[in-house]
């Protein structure tokens, strides 16, 4: 079995990253200590003041050049992503290229979303000029996962930078090389100050960042770790945005385009070896089309192969410990009368997991209730879409979902309890920088991407300027009984009829 883990034999104060595909040494990185993290955050504070002092336009110009470097060197960046995560090179190129629109959008829209704008006044406050603007928080700590080591952390990083913050980034210990590449590329376009810095290490380095007194933490990872991050941040009243996992469902109505639905389900469940936070894990299919859909899904899924060679469409499982979770989920289903229509217990070979499609799965099976994070789908027959909605919502998670229906797609989607829904497609919403990304319940809170993603890394600052002395002076000890009576009359007139 090949692994990608921190090597305990590595030189003191460092850790090694090995390719999950072939076990080759990919790189060695510093295991940053609490003191290293504190020093990095201190440098970031100075850089944050300088960066916040630039105009939106000046920051946009730097972010645009950062985007240019990524676009021109996609293949190089993808090479590191491929080595560290094992994902196919073409998937790595796709992931990195999808982040480009986000950088462009955040840079372009920051002035409009965050810049000062006028706010309304009322009859009694007509003498005031009111305005609101969104100011940078200061230093943002970003903790990222390994599964999408470019697209996911940049969803926090570039929105935080566009809002005028400095960023200290702690990538997963499995993908520090990818994080390092991004930080080096940004330093080329912002050489003056360390506005975007890297710290590397394991969970303890992440914990040090949480305790370092940064102005906000943007965490992406599992719900379990999010709780630890939140508890640690509570000590210093550091706010957090938490982007966690899910058990996303895909619903197939009786009038759905079954070819499109089967293709989408296979991709959303099995691309990136199923290691996607918004990956489909459960499929609920209307009984009228269940058998036809299942046949089409199995045909598409059977055409995919996990491997480490260039022709494999699915890479290895990046995290060695995830293999046991996938095995446990499959075995539980089979033990309790479920069927493996494709794959099954022998689908696992070392770090490779071949596509699995399971049916007749009990709803309380871990394969349904927990995040499997492997190339595996459970497919369940439902009598109608009401049942599909009910089963979809019967989870503590609430990240994303997808609905396939020609006539009732949006209507069904509106009834799902989750942060994002795709209709007649999958993975479309993260590609739209104008749309906020995030979940509810155990999937987290707060938003990256879109206007909400920019505001997430800022604070609202209100200003009310008195333009002239009001005819009715209310906030003074010189207020008279006549003023009181008039003010009461006006308020009663305005609000009393409701
Ligand atoms: P983990 O929760 O294991 O780790 C996430 C990050 O937290 C890593 O960088 C990890 O460092 C770090 N970390 C670990 N312990 C601590 C701690 N005590 N304090 C601070 N930081 C810590 O998640 P994975 O990396 O395994 O990522 C997979 C999870 O991420 C899945 O649940 C997936 O659904 C979710 N995810 C959510 C997304 C979203 O946008 N909603 C997007 C992508 C993934 P290290 O790796 O060095 O231990």
UniProtKB/TrEMBL annotation:
Domain of life: Bacteria
Pfam families the UniProt entry points to: Aldedh (PF00171)
UniProt keyword Transmembrane helix, yes or no: no
InterPro entries: Ald_DH/histidinol_DH, Ald_DH_C, Ald_DH_N, Aldehyde_DH_dom, Aldehyde_DH_NAD(P)
PANTHER family with a match to the protein in the record: ALDEHYDE DEHYDROGENASE-RELATED
Keyword annotations from UniProtKB, A to Z: Oxidoreductase
Keyword Zinc: no
Protein name per its UniProtKB record: Aldehyde dehydrogenase
Residue stretches making up the Aldehyde dehydrogenase domain: 11-458
Gene3D superfamilies: Aldehyde Dehydrogenase, Chain A, domain 1, Aldehyde Dehydrogenase, Chain A, domain 2
Family indicated by similarity: Belongs to the aldehyde dehydrogenase family.
Lineage start: Bacteria, Bacillati, Actinomycetota, Actinomycetes, Pseudonocardiales
């Amino acid at each position: 079995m090949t692994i990608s883990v921190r090597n305990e034999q590595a030189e003191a104060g460092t850790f090694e990253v090995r390719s999950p595909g072939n076990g080759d040494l990919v790189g060695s990185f510093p295991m940053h200590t609490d003191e290293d993290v504190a020093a990095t955050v201190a440098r970031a504070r100075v850089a944050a003041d300088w960066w916040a002092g630039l105009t939106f336009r000046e920051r946009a110009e730097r972010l645009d050049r950062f985007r240019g470097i990524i676009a021109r060197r996609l293949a190089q960046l993808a090479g590191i992503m491929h080595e560290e995560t094992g994902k196919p090179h073409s998937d790595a190129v796709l992931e990195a290229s999808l982040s480009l629109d986000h950088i462009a959008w955040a840079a372009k829209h920051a002035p409009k979303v965050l810049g000062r704008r006028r706010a309304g006044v009322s009859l009694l406050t007509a003498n005031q000029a009111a305005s609101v603007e969104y100011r940078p928080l200061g230093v943002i700590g970003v903790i990222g996962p390994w599964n999408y080591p470019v697209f996911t952390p940049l969803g926090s990083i570039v929105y935080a930078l566009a809002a005028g913050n400095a960023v200290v980034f702690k990538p997963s210990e499995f993908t520090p090389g990818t994080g390092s590449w991004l930080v080096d590329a940004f330093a080329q376009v912002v050489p003056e100050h360390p506005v975007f810095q890297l710290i590397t290490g394991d969970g303890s380095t992440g914990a040090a960042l949480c305790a370092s007194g940064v102005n906000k933490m943007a965490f992406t990872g599992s719900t379990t770790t999010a709780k630890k991050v939140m508890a640690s941040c509570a000590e210093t009243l550091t706010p957090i945005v938490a982007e966690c996992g899910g058990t996303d469902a895909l619903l197939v109505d009786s009038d759905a385009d079954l070819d499109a639905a089967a293709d989408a389900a296979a991709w959303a469940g099995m691309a990136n070896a199923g290691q996607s936070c918004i990956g489909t894990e459960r499929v609920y299919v209307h009984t009228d089309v269940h058998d036809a859909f299942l046949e089409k899904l199995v045909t598409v899924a059977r055409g995919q192969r996990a491997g480490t060679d260039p022709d494999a469409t699915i890479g290895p499982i990046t995290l060695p410990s995830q293999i046991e979770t996938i095995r446990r989920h499959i075995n539980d289903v089979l033990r309790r009368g479920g069927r493996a229509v494709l794959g099954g217990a022998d689908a696992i070979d070392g770090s490779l997991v071949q596509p699995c499609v399971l049916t007749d799965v009990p709803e309380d099976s871990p394969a349904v209730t927990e995040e499997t994070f492997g190339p595996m789908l459970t497919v369940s027959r439902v009598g109608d879409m009401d049942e599909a909605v009910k089963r979809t919502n019967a989870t503590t998670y609430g990240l994303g979902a997808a609905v396939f229906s020609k006539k009732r797609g949006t209507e069904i989607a509106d009834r799902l309890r989750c942060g994002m829904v795709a209709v007649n497609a999958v993975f479309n919403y993260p590609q739209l920088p104008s749309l906020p990304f995030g979940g509810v319940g155990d999937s987290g809170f707060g938003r990256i991407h879109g206007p909400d993603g920019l505001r997430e890394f800022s604070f609202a600052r209100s200003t009310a300027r008195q333009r002239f002395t009001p005819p009715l002076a209310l906030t003074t000890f010189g207020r008279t009984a006549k003023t009181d009576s008039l003010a009461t009359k006006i308020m009663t007139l305005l609000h009393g009829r409701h």
